[in-house]
Amino acid sequence: MIAVMYHHIFVAGTFDGIHKGHEVLLARAFLDGKRVIIGLTPDDFVKKFKTSKIRDLGSRKKELEDWLRQKQFMSRTSIITIKDAHEPAASIPKLDAIVVSAKTAFRAREINDIRKKRGLSELAVLEVPMIDAEDRKPISSTRLRNGEIDGEGRLVMPDNLRPELAKPLGTVLGETAISSSIERNRQKSIITVGDIATETLIKHGVTPSLSIIDQKVGRKPYDTLKNLPNALLGHRTNVVSGPGYIAQEAIKLIEKWTKDPKTTLLVVDGEEDLLALPAIHHAPEGSVVYYGQPQEGLVEVMVTEEKKREVVALIDKFIQY
């Protein structure tokens, strides 16, 4: 199906930090419009309707222009300062369409009511759905400014949570205790998070049911794959997650393993550290999770109902399931 081309499309916003939601909104305008007029809210307008601190008009305009140049849209657009919620979209005769988000679709209807009263043609309303972040809540500039998410909608771990997450979630095992722990638990369902944790189990003759690695040790590249058996390598899945966030796709893959617990290897592009949380949360009760504790050894986590509640409480502080 060929997209309808409009001669002049209008789209407006504050555009404070170009995020994925903005990109989808703007891309729709340039997909359907030969020319796109972008209305940018001035500082005095922002202060009336926005409670959180927003960058000045000059900074927001520059970032918007940089994005437009990167996408090669500058030759097809003009940026104007809007007067209020309806102007100048309600007054420009040559406009024939407007792009809005699902959240602001009501505004387009108000603009069309004004245009009709003035004898101007109504605008075709191109409504773009809200884009969800990793926690399935809409991406917004407010959430971006608050440090909850990045521009792609990935949830960012709050700085004040880092010390809490650095504490071991189970028993820290020194060298002498590791062998006895593995021997004691070898008949259980075992999950490893981390390259050294996975290698350690393999060296003791145990292939974990689920292994999560990022091919790094101490943040430096490490070729873990060469030391893993075909029993793991033959069931490899790649996923992007971290650092500082848990990707929804990674959670889905862990959930998939829970429903069908076949031997699985997740190779993470990013960092695997935080995936210990959803691994414990979704692991069956009675299973064991091993992960590395820097400069201390391995952590052994016996998965119980109480431990799951503890982990969910941590997860809820920066990601909502």
Provide keyphrases for this structure.
single chain; seven-stranded mixed sheet; 321 residues; Rossmann fold; 2 domains; 12 helices
Helix-strand layout with pairing:
Elements: E1 6-13, H1 20-32, E2 33-40, H2 43-49, H3 57-70, E3 77-81, E4 97-101, H4 105-117, E5 124-128, H5 141-145, H6 162-166, E6 171-173, H7 175-185, E7 190-193, H8 195-203, E8 210-213, E9 216-217, E10 220-221, H9 230-233, E11 236-241, H10 248-259, E12 264-270, H11 276-282, E13 288-293, E14 297-302, H12 305-315
Helix pairs in contact: 11-12
Description:
By secondary structure, the chain is an alpha/beta fold. The protein has two domains: 6-156, HUPs (Rossmann fold), CATH 3.40.50; 161-315, no CATH class. Helix content is 35%, strand content 22%. The protein has helices at residues 20-32, 43-49, 57-70, 105-117, 141-145, 162-166, 175-185, 195-203, 230-233, 248-259, 276-282, 305-315, and strands at 6-13, 33-40, 77-81, 97-101, 124-128, 171-173, 190-193, 210-213, 216-217, 220-221, 236-241, 264-270, 288-293, 297-302. Strands 6-14-13-7-8-12-11 form a seven-stranded mixed sheet, with helices on both faces. α8 (195-203) links the parallel β7 and β8 (210-213). α11 (276-282) packs across α12. The chain starts with 5 loop residues before the first strand and ends in a 6-residue tail after the last helix. The model has no long low-confidence stretch (mean pLDDT 89).
